[in-house]
Amino acid sequence: MPDTHTSPLFALSEEHQAIRSAVRELCDAKVAPYAALVDEEARYPHEAAAALLAADFHAPHVPEEYGGAGADALATVLVIEEVARACVSSSLIPAVNKLGSLPVQLAGSEELKKHYLGALARGEGGFSYCLSEPEAGSDAAAMRTRAVRDGEDWVLHGTKRWISNAGESEFYTVLAVTDPDKRTRGISAFVVEKSDAGVSFGAPEKKLGIKGSPTREVYLDNVRVPADRMIGEEGTGFELAMRTLDHTRVTIAAQAVGVAQGALDYALEYAKERQQFGKSISDFQGLQFLLADMGMKVEAARQMTYAAAGRSERGDADLTFFGAAAKCFASDVAMQVTVDAVQVLGGYGYTKDYPVERMMRDAKITQIYEGTNQVQRIVMARQLLAGIQSQV
C-alpha cells in the first residue's frame, strides 16, 4: 500500500483514492445493508467482519513482513472513515485491531510480532486493548491490575473495563502494575490470549450507540502468561500506552469524520427530495446555510485528520498535539453534524426508520473514548505550553 512520504500534500495520491473507492464499494454492498439490524439487535456485525477480512481491510495497518496489507497511517484512516460512514460499529473492527496490536508493533520482540501480528493478519483473531479499569479511566496511572513474576511466568490479576470487542477478540494487550512503588514507571504491557486459563468476560454493556461493538469487562483471575509475552521492557508499559494513543486517536478522528459524512450525505439527499410549501426544502436559504456549515465542518475535520495521519506515519514530534487536536475537533464536529442531520429530517430524523438518529447516537462515543475531549484539551494545552507545535 502507498507511502505518505511520496504522496502530494495537496491531494490524496491515486493509490489512496483507489483504496477509498474500494472500501466505499465494499461498504455500500456488504456493510451498510446490515447497519440498522446490527444496531437494533445489538449484535456483533459478523457480515461486515467477514467482508472486511476477505478484502484485507480488517487490520490494514499490519506490515507486509508479517503478512499484512502494509497500509500506511493515511490509508488506514481512509479504511476506517469509509467503514464508519456506513456503520460506526463495524469501523471498530479495523480501529480496535490497530489499537490492540500497535503496542506489539511498536515495542514487541520480533518473535511477538511474527506470532501475533501474523495471526491478526491471517484473520485468526482480533486484538483488543485493556487499559481502563473501574477506578482508572482518564487517570490510567491509578490502575490496580497486578502482574507478579513467578519463575518464567507472570501472573496477572485484576479487572479491565470498557474494553471494545471484548469476548470477540482472541488477543488482548493488557497493562498491569509490576512495581507499585514506581507509579507510571512500574506499569508493564503483556499479550493475553482469550484461551488463557483465568480469562473471562462480563456481560455486554447496554450502550447509547455503537451497539454492534461489544463493550465488556475483562476479568483476569491469576492468569499465567510466559515472560516472553511482555511487550517491551518491564516498566515501559505506561509510556507505550500513551505512545499508542498518540497514533490511534487519529483513527477515532477518522471514525468521527466518517459518521459525520454519512449523516451529511443522507441529509443532503433528503433535503433535495422533501417537498414543503410547494418546493424542495433545499431551496430554503435557512436550510442551505445549515447544510453549508455541516459541509464546511466535515471538510475541516477531514483535513485535520489527514494531516494528523501524516504525522503518525512519520512519527513527527508534534504528533501528540495533532492526534489530540484531530480527535477532539473531528468528534465535536461529528456530534454537531449528526444532530443537525436529525434536524434536517425533522420528525422523521427522530425515528429509527431513518439512519441519522443511529448516527447521532454512534457519534457521541467519539467524544469520550481514547481520552475524553476534556483530556484532549489538557494534552493540547501542555503541548502548546511546551512549545511543541508545527512551525508552519
From TrEMBL:
Keywords: FAD, Flavoprotein, Oxidoreductase. PANTHER family: ACYL-COA DEHYDROGENASE, ISOVALERYL-COA DEHYDROGENASE, MITOCHONDRIAL-RELATED. This is Probable acyl-CoA dehydrogenase fadE25. It holds the Pfam family Acyl-CoA_dh_M. The keyword Oxidoreductase applies. The keyword Chloroplast does not apply. It catalyses: a 2,3-saturated acyl-CoA + A = a 2,3-dehydroacyl-CoA + AH2. Transmembrane segments: none annotated. Residues 235-385 form the Acyl-CoA dehydrogenase/oxidase C-terminal domain. Residues 13-124 form the Acyl-CoA dehydrogenase/oxidase N-terminal domain. Residues 129-223 form the Acyl-CoA oxidase/dehydrogenase middle domain. One of its GO terms (molecular function) is flavin adenine dinucleotide binding. Belongs to the acyl-CoA dehydrogenase family. Its cofactor is FAD. InterPro entries: Acyl-CoA_DH_CS (IPR006089), Acyl-CoA_Oxase/DH_mid-dom (IPR006091), Acyl-CoA_Oxase/DH_mid-dom_sf (IPR046373), AcylCo_DH-like_C (IPR036250), AcylCo_DH/oxidase_C (IPR009075), AcylCoA_DH/ox_N (IPR013786), AcylCoA_DH/ox_N_sf (IPR037069), AcylCoA_DH/oxidase_NM_dom_sf (IPR009100).
